[in-house]
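Can't attach files on this board, so I'm pasting raw text. These are the components:
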Amino acid sequence: MVWANVTVQGILLGGLYALFATGLALVFGVMRMVNLAHGDLGILAAFIALFIVQSLGLPLLWATVLTIAIMFILGYVLQRGLLNFTLGTDDTRPIVVTFGLSIIIQNALILKFSADSQGLDAGKIENISIKISNQMSIGWFPLIVFLTAVAVIAVLELFLARAKLGRAFRATSDDREAAELMGINNKHIYSLAMAIALAIVALAGVLLAIRTTFDPTQGGFRLIYAFEAVIMGGMGSMWGTLAGGIILGVAQTLGTQAFGAGWGLVAGHLVFLTVLAVKPSGFFAKTVTA
Amino acid sequence: MTDVVLELQDVDVFYGDFQALFKVSFQVEDGMTFAFIGANGGGKSTLLRTIAGLQRPTSGHVLFHGEPVDQYPAHTRVGMGIALVPEGRRVFPSLTVRENLLMGAYGGRKGDWNVDSVVELFPLLKPLLKRGAGSLSGGEQQAMAIGRALMSNPELLLLDEVSLGLAPVVIKRIYEAMVQLVGSGHTILVVEQDVGHVLTVSDYVACFLEGRISLEGKPADLSSEAITAAYFGM
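---
Top answer:
Structure tokens for the assembled complex are below.
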């Protein structure tokens, strides 16, 4: 029963990983760009929410909504004003530029907020749980995070499958130049994709900040977990990303239970490396790579 | 006097250091079928890409209805009524046939074309609408690619090597469709390596050799010896 409980906690944790990874997967899917600043942008969102709560005194829910809106706009401007110029023949350019962006964000956050750990307080929702048995109880907050991840991914999949704009995302992903011939401005499409990606990672960052403490240097870890989730799930499939996040979460909690604290992260990475060796395209790969 | 839909004035196009087009000039009148023939690497595809806006001339101008369109990117030119069916068909493989066709209507330009009228023109597409476009045969993909371009309700349709690699029966159907399109008021600019079919449907033909027009005129006025000479540069 202990193991069942640990597994359930791992699944719920996987929802948060998937939420972090969704934007990364979307950006890679639409424009084949690897955004190394993705994790730091999530942490930036957590600090923006913290600032809004502490300095403007807004309730956390409104601060979250406002943060998501800010990150959406930031995503559009960042892509249109900077990252679009890095795309083209040389794949290393966006990697170098987003790596630089990652360093800038981390250090700007340290300057403004110091390197101390911070937390966002969501009140009593953080501590209440549903008791299933003596050995298993499910926290309301992790459950909400997991359901949020499922809802976000469902809406995103529906958008990509049904909406006219979602179709344009997929067409641009298939063949940028042919999409241009259909009247699609790919610079605009890329910017919208980044806007949506950062809106989602903003939500992920705020939920992370409520779940645990955070500091400016955590973006790198978030990025690695997100990458592992995306690659295990398979490029181009949002549900695959959720599956990848869950596999990672369960591997980490089971690893901790079996070998003690600290070994969880190792177990997660080992499972990832195993998947990479056995099934390098991931479990649900959909993206057609030329 | 008929209306000039498209005019090129001394267009030079470079890929890096390589010059693909040399001072190319011509006019296309409304409702005309204008054919470019020539061997591989002659600059025919570059020409269509330049008209569609995927390639920029280093000097010279592209005029659409007398207005220069050089500063407009490809995605804006679709809305003005210029549609290109690119070489190699370039379908969206992860989209269904219907979704591919709907992508053509993305710009929202008004006109008579919709999924139903495209299916009427190419009945072979009817049972395939829900299929993934990547699973189609070459001929089916080509019909869909032409239909997709028509969905943008173009005034000027640019067709790049539409018969390449297709079965003769499919080529015949595509050329029949081309005649129907001209009947319904479209102006067509078609590029082909295969001279036979294209001469039967075109009003005017120009032969491309190494980035220059080596011969031009009405098909009836050109002897096959002259065309062969211009085609191979003899």
